[in-house]
């Protein structure tokens, strides 16, 4: 069974296609104070929700979702070890089911180096990671590793990771602009309607704030559709769009048959190259 229902990650043939990941290992380091049960169960729940959020961006619409199960619970010296995996499914191959594990672990490694939102991460995933990795109530340190026969490199949700994660969600630049993608989440908190717009080309999801006069249209016409949203953009230090205050939203055509053909655009602007030939124009453009 092919992994055609999983969006590819940069530089890979199909995300999770050949990694052979079988589980996610979570290590919780304790000190003299033992971990509170509520702290542990809350951490595991944040982990489950983070995997589900990532999976939502990885898989195509209509694909059966993974069901996460406990594979191992152990204690080694001062560390609690929990392994979780996806239950077998007749609808999806194992590599597809475990792809969220690879994305989650890769994201922690990326945040250790850069203050930017990793591929297939959302604002919600980063906030869950911060809750999961923050020390306290018996937890000194939390690390994640993808398991393939044996655990791979351990990625600690360290202080630098948490600092970079917080910076990745901090809007430091404001401008007018637009984002496009699949409107795949709608939520209402505190009377404010928010949507998630996922762009599979950039592997990024942007939170959009919807004004009251557009709320009914979003629920009725734009849910699970490809949209173009315009408004005030918030970007982080790395220039990534993390949020948009939407003042206009429209539905985009979907499907290759609705895209403009070469014949449709041929000759659309005959004066584009000025007095130059196409070859001369291309050479000048490459020198710029």
Quickly list its features.
single chain; 288 residues; alpha+beta; OB fold (Dihydrolipoamide Acetyltransferase, E2P); 2 domains; six-stranded antiparallel beta sheet; five-stranded mixed barrel; 7 helices; 32% strand; elongated
Number of helices: 7
Number of strands: 11
What's the main sheet like? Answer: 6 strands, antiparallel
Question: What percent of the residues sit in helical stretches (DSSP H or I)?
Answer: 25-40%
How do the SSEs run, as a string of H and E?
EHEEHHEEEHEEEHEEHH
Shape type:
elongated
Distance between the ends: 47 Å
* Rg value: 22 Å
Overall pLDDT level: 86
Describe the structure.
By secondary structure, the protein is an alpha+beta fold. The protein folds into 2 domains: 23-168, no CATH class; 173-256, OB fold (Dihydrolipoamide Acetyltransferase, E2P), CATH 2.40.50. It contains 7 helices and 11 strands. The protein has helices at 37-58, 94-111, 123-133, 159-168, 215-222, 262-265, 278-287, and strands at residues 23-30, 68-76, 79-86, 139-148, 150-151, 155-156, 173-189, 192-199, 204-210, 226-235, 241-251. Strands 1, 2, 3, 4, 5 and 6 form a 6-stranded antiparallel sheet that branches. It has a 5-stranded mixed beta barrel with strand order 7-8-9-11-10. Helix 1 (37-58) runs antiparallel to helix 3. It is elongated. The N and C termini lie far apart (47 Å). Mean pLDDT is 86; it is low at 11-18.
């Amino acid at each position: 069974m092919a992994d055609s229902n999983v969006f590819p990650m940069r530089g890979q043939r199909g995300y999770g296609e050949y990694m052979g990941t079988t589980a996610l290992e979570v290590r919780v380091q304790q000190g003299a104070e033992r971990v509170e049960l509520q702290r542990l169960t809350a951490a595991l729940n944040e982990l489950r929700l983070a995997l589900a959020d990532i999976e939502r961006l990885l898989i195509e619409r209509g694909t059966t979702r993974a069901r996460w199960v406990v594979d191992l619970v152990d204690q080694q010296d001062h560390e609690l070890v929990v392994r979780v995996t996806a239950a077998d499914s007749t609808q999806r191959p194992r590599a597809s089911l475990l792809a969220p594990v690879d994305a989650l672990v890769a994201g922690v490694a990326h945040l250790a180096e850069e203050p930017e939102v990793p591929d297939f991460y959302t604002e919600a995933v980063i906030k869950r990671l911060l809750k999961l990795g923050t020390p306290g109530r018996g937890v000194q340190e939390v690390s994640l590793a993808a398991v393939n026969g044996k655990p791979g490199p351990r990625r600690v949700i360290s202080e630098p990771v948490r600092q970079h994660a917080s910076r990745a969600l901090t809007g430091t630049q404001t401008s007018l602009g637009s984002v496009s993608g699949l409107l795949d989440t709608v939520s209402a908190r505190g009377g404010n309607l928010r949507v998630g717009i996922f762009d599979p080309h950039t592997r990024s999801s942007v939170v959009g704030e919807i004004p009251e006069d557009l709320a009914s249209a979003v629920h009725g016409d734009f849910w699970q559709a490809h949209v173009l949203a315009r408004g005030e953009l918030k970007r982080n230090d790395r220039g990534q769009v993390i949020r948009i205050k939407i003042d206009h939203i429209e539905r985009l055509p979907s499907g290759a048959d609705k895209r403009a053909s070469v014949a449709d655009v041929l000759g659309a602007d005959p004066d584009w190259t000025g007095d130059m030939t196409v070859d001369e124009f291309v050479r000048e453009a490459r020198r710029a």
